Amino acid sequence: MWKRILIAILMAVMLSSCTFKLGYNSLDFWIDYYLSDYIDLNSAQQSQLEQGLDNALAEHRKQILPQFHRLIFSLQNDLKQPLTAEQIAHYHDAFTKAGQASAVVFVAPIIKVVKTMSPKQVTESLQAIQAELSKRKKERLEKTAKERLQDRYDELEDKATDWIGRLTQPQKQLLMQLAQLQLQQSTVFQNMAQNNLSQLTKALKQRSTPEFEQIITLQVKRIVALESSVYQSQLDKYLAQRFEIMQQLNHSLSQQQLKHLQAELTDLRKDIAELIQNR
Questions:
Q1: What are phi and psi of 228, to 5 degrees?
Q2: Please, are residues 32 and 50 in contact by the beta-carbon 8 Å criterion?
């Protein structure tokens, strides 16, 4: 559940600038939409959630969007020269922290509603989440390793093309390396998802306690940051390898691709500026 909600919260950052404003202005709707797959609320709870998400969007627009604006402006300046490994790690951490702040803002009203749920609602929600995990696992197993790799590569290629334009063959090879790296970690990611569900199940039993909000907030922040007490060493190694590939990709950009990237970032930054002005 949290993963799909967090994807909705952060999706605007992952999309090309042409869809940013539309996606952002309807973000409260999409969070509610994804949440409805897992939680069946009564009318009072639904009204509480909708009002809470409306307020969260207003708070995010005022408090968090300026952080993304400043980060993008800084990134554009640094992109005038090839990025170092340290710079790539820095921006990963900076955007992760902004993502965590985003998640906390939008998860807060969800937590308030979850605290009012009945035992029956909680049980049904956990069953729905487990069913989704099982469904995704089944879908993965129905595909060959080659098919899964191709699917992952196609996703990466689409995103890269949006941001930098037409790719060269060496750049496509780098993306294939990244796809392979991510698939190598698939078991770890699946186990983390199951662990997150176990932690959520345990936390929901404490939803009437004062510590509940803090417990869920911390869990969500760890998911955004890709942190795990069990798999952290594997995750650190994965991130280091991913940073190396991203550095090679950055150093491979042509002037035309850099111009394309800068134009996309400028459009995105302008859209964010307009959103901050509530337009």
A1: -155, 130
A2: yes
65: nearest Cα among 91, 34, 73: 73
Rounded CA separation 209/23 (Å): 35
Per-residue tokens: 36: 């409805």
Write the pLDDT tens digit of every residue in 62-104: 999 999 999 999 999 999 999 998 999 999 999 999 989 998 9
For the chain, the straight-line distance linking the first and the last C-alpha, in angstroms and rounded, comes to 31
Per the structure block, which two tokens stand in for 176? Answer: 């294939």
Are the C-beta atoms of 253 and 261 separated by less than 8 Å?
yes
For the chain, give the mean pLDDT. 88
CB 26 within 8 A of CB 240: no
Residue reference for tokens 């869990």: 219
Rounded to two decimals, the pTM is 0.87
Q: What Å distances lie between residue 116 and 57, 200, 237, CA to CA?
A: 22, 16, 41
Whole-angstrom distance, CA of residue 64 vs CA of residue 195: 29
